[in-house]
Write a structure and sequence with these properties.
Helix content: 40-55%
Strand order of the largest sheet: 2-1-3-5-4
Oligomer: single chain
Radius of gyration: 28 Å
Order of helices and strands: HHHHHHHHHHHHHHHHHHHHHEHEEHEE
Shape: globular
Structural class: alpha/beta
Strand content: 5-15%
Number of strands: 5
Length: 500
């Protein structure tokens, strides 16, 4: 043997096994992340296109009250001090006043321009939520895009993103609060607390019932805090935020705020309200809530706790003396969108076939639910005048208040116009003022009903109201002059007094 070292031939290196699915699907995800900024515009374009279809619709009762009783006649400080009824959504009315000030004084009132404010707030909420999803390290932006696009093309979005009410603005405040809460726990405390405080004050200052959505923000932020959350001052202050905000905002007008609870206004039934609320979620998001079911088995207790957000409307509907109107719970939609985006992100990498099948099922479910929901609501006995989600009368294509004005102008000799409370008198008076129709309008009110009328007057009654009841009330005869889409116009002639 020699001292030479015998070199054994080295085996060739084994090729690194790469799973075929990873090669097949990693590239599209990287591409999606690279172009996430452009992909994020999909829900924005969908939202603008959806809202543009209804921007020019006429005002309905609550919108006309907001404009004619608060925004137009009052100054900014008077809006805050005039909280007589909840129709004055203070923060929204103040912003609408400032928004209207951008129009030249010589321009007439422009309802479509006013509605753009709500649309801008809704779009801004979507942008904040989309950016927040990128901060949460979603593997792909498609989850957020899917959820937000489903929301953008929903009937609820069309309604509230263009309404002269504060619901779309509430979406913005809630999204801002979520972004602020994330910053508080992720190294941006100063900007986070500022955004969180502004979002909380704005939300409760727009609609007091947004306190529920603010509590939902705290629940969603719970997994972001440390393990010992009860000793984490940040979380404790975060949890106190909703209650501190509503106290700070309404304490200077506490007497007026408490008086609104004595109005005894509310929805007609508790279980009916529950059906409408959760039916609206199904119509808005389709089968997407099903992604929450697997998460209940996989995630820890902290993330499971987030799922209680789905049930926040239940105690409010079942326990409050007056059942809230289902529309006040639409301000929870940003939180629902975040939960659904979490569920999609937790699904991990899936095959293209599964993606295609899921997308098809989603589209079919959205189409089927939105086509069948109006018929189902009608079959269940829900009046279209209490329906804010499936077939609200003021969202119908042929809804028109101004169609009554020519009939009122035809009879200059009759100066008095009686309007029942159900006929939505405020929009008619608003458009009559714009058209310079000089009439003595007498709107009937739940408190302070009209007691006497002149011998000759015009009556405006909703189509489902009985003329005979008003004939017996005022002692006269009603002759129908005009049949409108929602209201009819009658000529009233009082019975002659008996002669001796």
């Amino acid at each position: 043997m020699t001292g030479e070292t015998v070199r054994r031939p080295a085996f060739p290196p084994m090729p690194h096994p790469v799973p075929i699915p990873s090669v097949r699907y990693r590239l599209p995800m990287r591409t999606a992340r690279r172009y996430s900024f452009l992909i994020g515009w999909i829900p924005v374009f969908a939202a603008v296109a959806s809202a543009a279809l209804v921007l020019r619709r006429e005002l309905w009762f609550d919108e006309a009250i907001t404009v004619s009783l608060y925004m137009m006649p009052l100054k900014l400080h008077q809006i805050y001090l005039s909280y007589v009824i909840p129709n004055n959504q203070i923060a929204y009315t103040v912003l609408l006043k400032l928004w209207n000030g951008m129009l030249p004084d010589t321009w007439p009132a422009n309802v479509a321009f006013w509605r753009i404010l709500s649309l801008l707030a809704a779009v801004a909420a979507m942008v904040i939520l989309y950016r927040l999803r990128s901060k949460l390290h979603d593997r792909t932006p498609w989850g957020a895009v899917t959820v937000l696009t489903a929301l953008a093309v929903s009937p609820a979005f069309q309604n509230y993103a263009t309404a002269l009410r504060g619901y779309a603005l509430s979406w913005f405040w809630i999204a801002l609060s979520l972004d602020g809460a994330w910053r508080v726990f992720h190294g941006h405390a100063r900007s986070g607390w500022c955004l969180y405080a502004a979002g909380m004050l704005g939300a409760v200052g727009t609609v007091p019932t947004n306190l529920l959505a603010c509590v939902g923000v705290v629940i969603y932020a719970f997994p972001w805090c440390g393990r010992d959350c009860l000793r984490d001052r940040r979380f404790l202050l975060l949890a106190a935020g909703p209650f501190l905000s509503i106290a700070v905002f309404y304490l200077p007008i506490l007497h007026s705020f408490l008086n609104t609870f004595s109005l005894n206004e509310g929805f007609s039934g508790r279980f009916g309200a529950l059906a409408v609320v959760y039916g609206s979620i199904a119509v808005t998001f389709g089968i997407l809530p099903l992604v929450e079911i697997p998460r209940l088995k996989r995630r820890g207790l902290r993330r499971r706790f987030r799922c209680t957000i789905w049930f926040l409307p239940v105690p409010a509907i079942l326990l409050l003396p007056n059942v809230p109107f289902p529309r006040v719970f639409c301000t929870l939609f940003p939180l629902y969108a975040m939960l659904l985006a979490d569920g999609i992100a937790a699904m991990g990498r899936v095959s293209r076939i599964r993606v295609a099948v899921s997308a098809g099922c989603l589209l079919v479910s959205l189409a089927a639910l939105r086509l069948c929901a109006p018929a189902a609501a009608s079959a269940s006995g829900l009046s279209e005048y209490e329906d804010d989600y499936f077939r609200p009368w003021y969202m119908a294509k042929d809804y028109s208040v101004r169609e009554l004005l020519p009939e009122l102008e035809k009879r200059p000799g009759v100066s008095t116009v009686f309007m029942s409370f159900a006929s939505d008198p405020c929009p008619l008076m608003f458009y009559a003022a714009l058209r310079s129709v000089k009439r003595d309008f007498l709107p009937d009110q739940p408190v302070g009903k009209v007691k006497t009328l002149p011998p000759s007057a015009l009556f405006v009654l909703r189509r489902d109201e009985s003329p005979e009841a008003f004939e017996a009330r005022f002692g006269g005869k009603l002759l129908r002059l005009f049949t409108g889409h929602d209201c009819n116009v009658y000529l009233f002639a009082a019975d002659a007094p008996p002669t001796e």
